[in-house]
Amino acid sequence: MDVDDDMAELESFRTEHGNLGGPALSVSAPTSPVGSPIRTSAGQKRLEKNFSFARSSRHESSRIVETEKLNIEEVGMLLEAHFVVIDNTLDKLISLKEYIDDTEDFINIQLDNVRNQLIQVDLLLSTASFIVAILGVVVGIFGMNFPVPLFDKLKAFYWVLGISGLTGIVIFCVFLWYFKRRRLIPL
């Protein structure tokens, strides 16, 4: 939006369509027809009247031109004021868009942080379910219907249960140590 282009367009419109202030007035002095010389006093009075009209029309014409120039300047000042307001509004909209983009980035960072925490919890739960699966294998062996001499001793069950539990805890601690060393979970 260039002010100079707009002003040039306004000036070209004014010159194409004539005066903006009203009908165009003749600036030249009226002349008598060639074949009719003015000799009478009535003709002389008419001539003086026509000259005075020409003088007043020149003054009116210059007033109209000055008024048009003032109107054009007023329009130019109004356009300038509107351009300033539009530019200010555009700057505000651009800064608002930047705020929205920054807020979206902040929300994405927060969501990524929560997602990482969920992955860490999932990792710990997967490790715990692996340990429970190992204990499920031991229970499955004791649930079989075939004779094993180890099954006849009462204390053997407690020994197997203790060794299985201790093995599960050791495996879980080894996984935690590995995850901490690889910085997969903050502990």
From TrEMBL:
InterPro entries: CorA_TM1_TM2, MgTranspt_CorA/ZnTranspt_ZntB, MRS2-like. SUPFAM superfamilies: Magnesium transport protein CorA, transmembrane region. It is a multi-pass membrane protein. Residues 15-40 are annotated as: Disordered. It is found in: Membrane. The chain crosses the membrane at residues 123-144, 156-179. Gene3D superfamilies: Magnesium transport protein CorA, transmembrane region. Keywords: Membrane, Transmembrane, Transmembrane helix. Residues 28-40 have a biased composition (Polar residues). It comes from the Eukaryota. GO terms for molecular function: magnesium ion transmembrane transporter activity. Its main location: membrane. One of its GO terms (cellular component) is membrane. Belongs to the CorA metal ion transporter (MIT) (TC 1.A.35.5) family. PANTHER family: MAGNESIUM TRANSPORTER MRS2-1, RNA SPLICING PROTEIN MRS2, MITOCHONDRIAL. This is Magnesium transporter. It comes from Rhynchospora breviuscula.
